[in-house]
Amino acid sequence: MKDNHLSRRDFVRVSTAGVAAMSLPALASARTGLAPETPGAAPQQQGGGAAQNIIPAWRPGDADSFTRYYFDSLMLEARYLDSDIPSTKFELFGETFDTPIMTAALSHLNNPQNGMILYAQAAAACNAVHWMGMGEDKELEDIIATGARTIKVIKPHADNNEVFRRIKHAVGAGCFAVGMDIDHSFNTTGGYDVVLGLPMKPKTTAEIRSFVKASSVPFIIKGVLSVTDAKKCLEAGVAGIVVSHHGGHVPYSCPPLMVLEDIVDAVGGKMKIFVDCGIVSGIDAYKALALGADAVSVGRHLMPILREGADAVAKRMKAMTAELARIMADTGVHNLSEMDPTVIHRTLF
Ligand SMILES: Cc1cc2nc3c(=O)[nH]c(=O)nc-3n(C[C@H](O)[C@H](O)[C@H](O)COP(=O)(O)O)c2cc1C
Question: Which domains does the chain have, with CATH numbers?
């Protein structure tokens, strides 16, 4: 980091004080245009228009609000000399995509009824990597049939035989990578999670290694939010990690970008590093990429647009890629390999 930039640790100190001084409910309200929620109330959903963000407004410890605040605290300097129209081509596991902006691993998109298929069709139309979360075998096969190059994220099922079965099915169905969301192993009352009746359990590093060995395609861990877990993933031989708090699954989770640079320092170049949570624009995507992510995923921001069809979702994804390209041009970045964290300045306000 250059001398004129705050260090990451300094920023954390300053921003923590700043958040307290500013009143986070007021900040979130300004962001969303909605009245702040009553603390403790159920999260509010913003429906409707294509570009709207459905991330809930403020609630105590809300990691989504902290994540938005963190994105908005990162400023960009400009670098016009020797700049030109950039390429957003993205290489992953031997394949080339038009954008590093991917879909997020969503599931159960039942409004509209065929939401999961529309979501996959949109990714295919953008030549973007598509992620699928929880779901049954047939749904995955239908998604693959759309032509979307898909990464399947398997839940941390208590029964490892179910994990091995799902890895085999996903590879056979045509997924070009598979993974596991390790952040879904505990429930909110201190026990093991049960998701739609299916029991979950935390995994050991040795178990992750066994999943890696069982998979003939790259294996990815989703839900890494520390250098500690990132190093264990590297040790287990995983091909990539998603730095994520699963949409605020745990209150007070670090914004992914707050830990991203330390994770990049520890394991960058040795595995792929993806980021999700709270990305609603190409500028958010740019900040994650500048700080060392290889690619980013967008989930809830795209969900309301599904009601307008796959073409509308694809249009928004392409617009986000155009936003990314515009900022790359403004900061002298010709392609993704030239992303540079020194473009980012951290605010004192
Ligand atoms: C409706 C819905 C379903 C989700 N299902 C899964 C899932 O099955 N597996 C998973 O790993 N993540 C799942 N997620 C989490 C997303 O992959 C992602 O981590 C989270 O939404 C944060 O990204 P976002 O802020 O862009 O939405 C789901 C999120 C939503 C909103």
Answer: 90-346 (3.20.20.70)
